[in-house]
Design a protein that fits this description.
Layout (H helix, E strand, L loop, with lengths): L15 H33 L3 H29 L1 H20 L4 H29 L2 H32 L8 H4 L1 H15 L13 H24 L3 H28 L12 H31 L4 H7 L1 H22 L2 H24 L5 H27 L7 H32 L8 H26 L6 E6 L13 E6 L1
Antiparallel strand pairs: 1-2
Helix pairs in contact: 1-2, 1-4, 1-5, 1-7, 2-3, 2-4, 2-8, 2-15, 3-4, 3-7, 4-15, 5-11, 5-12, 5-14, 8-9, 8-15, 10-14, 10-15, 10-16, 12-14, 13-14, 13-16, 15-16
Pfam family, one: MFS_1
Subcellular location: Cell membrane
Organism: Streptacidiphilus cavernicola
Length: 504
């Protein structure tokens, strides 16, 4: 069954909820794979004899390939079909996961992780695009709430499942089940996706912008590679030169995309989307969110395992209150709060999460190395609730005015921005956390005190990122209402059928 984007009046496909289950499971697989490897790094290093450089690439290579390929993956969905690209992506992701689990050495594991990230870049942008084109506007808020809850759960459950699978040492496979667990999920997603996902693509014939792909990928590589390698290499001069040189590359990319739009209307990135206030503000919020999440989750893990000396399983279980806060608040946000209070719910979420961050920082300073898991429950619940209020309705707000034919491109931009923010956050960890640890006086302070001080410093950076996101949220619509909007082809604010209109 095929449904083009200009068929807004077509009856709703009753299989859409099964299709949603498939794409949300794929999102969970991706989110878990981003975080699950960190917990298993010591086991991987012992088993394969991987160097520190290889270990860095096992974790960072996935994110690098993922970030670089996202925009292209989203645009390919618009061109050749989102269902088709989703199936290609989840199939490739499953094969790459099997190869990761069967890797015989660190070199093979690094290369297969790069392949896994590239496959994820084909799969993930289609998730939001399929939702955007499958569900009517009146259902989309609820669906995006489920999507946001899945993101929060995936971020926290990844380390927990990684700890369990590594510690259980199933069939003597040590770390390998963290990758092999994707096989049954991937095969099921592929089979069910073929049956239940409805195909969609841009109604206007588009072509892949190969020059745009090359320029965009080069700019992202020049920016992200030094960030991921900088700490290990001692922040060499070439890294700063590369990051600075990425700016003129992006400038050339923007100029070329404008010319491409005027010439044949088939650019890699629809720059006209940034003229939509809600989309531009949402992209900024996504960047800030990626930064503070990148800082928090990495420093939190380092603090608990290296500072407090907890086992991976202990650290993973400690994160359960955060997951509970995210999932509970996400459901309340979309179903009850946002329809009544609009963007103030997201702003409240930023402030609530900042409050939880401050409370966590106070507890670390107050109890030091004697801090227990039960004492972390309250700040983690508060932080999780704040994040749930943000992530659940944010995607809907960002995509509310995006034309369906550009849904894949917009989805790729959203995910790329998050990955870019996360990479920036991981780069800032060397300043706000590792720098504090390295310069601490070990003759006067214990390990727990040193890491506690570094974690406290990182939490204040997280709070700063949340306040920036709060300010950017003034660019989102005050309130979203449902009504019919006529299609006006070619304009960034066009909508279909029952689309969301902004009331400011």
């Amino acid at each position: 069954m095929t449904a083009q984007d200009d068929s807004a009046a077509a009856p709703l496909d009753p299989r859409r909820w099964l299709a949603l289950a498939v794409v949300l499971t794929a999102s969970l697989m991706d989110m878990m794979d981003v975080t699950i490897v960190n917990i298993a790094v010591p086991s991987i290093q012992r088993d394969t004899g991987a160097s520190f450089s290889s270990v860095q690439w096992i974790t960072a290579g996935y994110a690098l390939a993922f970030a670089i390929g996202l925009i292209t993956g989203g645009r390919l969905g618009d061109i050749v079909g989102r269902k088709r690209m989703f199936l290609v992506g989840i199939g490739g992701f499953t094969v790459a996961s099997a190869l990761c689990g069967l890797a015989v050495g660190p070199e093979m594991l690094v290369s297969t992780r790069l392949l896994q990230g590239a496959a994820a870049a084909m799969m993930v942008p289609q998730v939001l695009a399929i939702v955007h084109t499958t569900f009517p506007a009146e259902e989309r808020g609820k669906v995006f709430g489920m999507f946001g809850a899945m993101i929060g759960l995936g971020a926290v459950s990844g380390p927990l499942f990684g700890a369990l699978l590594t510690q259980w040492n199933l069939f003597g496979l040590q770390w390998r089940p963290i990758f092999l667990i994707n096989l049954p999920l991937g095969v099921a997603g592929l089979v069910l996706g073929i049956r239940y996902i409805t195909e969609s693509k841009a109604p206007k014939a588009l072509r892949l912008d190969l020059v745009g792909v090359a320029l965009g990928s080069l700019g992202l590589l020049m920016l992200l590679y030094p960030l991921m390698q900088g700490q290990q290499s001692g922040w060499p001069l070439w890294g700063f030169v590369s990051m600075a040189a990425s700016l003129p590359v992006f400038a050339v990319f923007v100029r070329y995309e404008r010319a491409k739009t005027a010439r044949d209307g088939s650019p890699l990135v629809e720059l006209s989307l940034f003229r939509v206030k809600s989309f531009a503000a949402g992209i900024g919020i996504q960047l800030a969110q990626g930064v503070f999440c990148g800082i928090f989750f990495l420093t939190w893990t380092l603090y608990m395992q290296l500072g407090l000396g907890w086992t991976p399983l202990h650290a993973g279980l400690t994160g359960l209150p955060f997951a509970l806060g995210v999932s509970t608040a996400a459901g309340l946000s979309v179903q009850l709060l946002v329809p009544r209070f609009g963007r103030r719910v997201l702003q409240a979420g930023a402030l609530v999460m900042a409050l939880g961050t401050a409370l966590y920082a106070w507890e670390v300073g107050r109890y030091g190395g004697g801090l227990h898991s039960w004492q972390m429950i309250l700040p983690l619940l508060v932080m999780g609730a704040g994040m749930g209020l943000i992530v659940a309705p944010l995607t809907d707000a960002v995509l509310s005015e995006v034309p369906r034919e550009h849904a894949g491109s917009a989805s790729g931009l959203i995910n790329t921005t998050m990955q870019l923010g996360a990479a920036l956050g991981m780069g800032l960890v060397s300043v706000c956390f590792l720098g504090v640890v390295e310069h601490a006086d070990r003759s006067r302070h214990s390990t727990a005190q040193i890491f506690g001080g570094a974690f406290t410093e990182s939490l204040w950076w997280v709070a700063g990122g949340l306040l920036l996101a709060f300010a950017l949220m003034f660019g989102l619509p005050r309130r979203a209402v449902q009504h019919d909007v006529p299609v006006a082809s070619g304009t960034p604010a066009e909508a279909d059928g029952a689309e969301l209109a902004l009331v400011r």
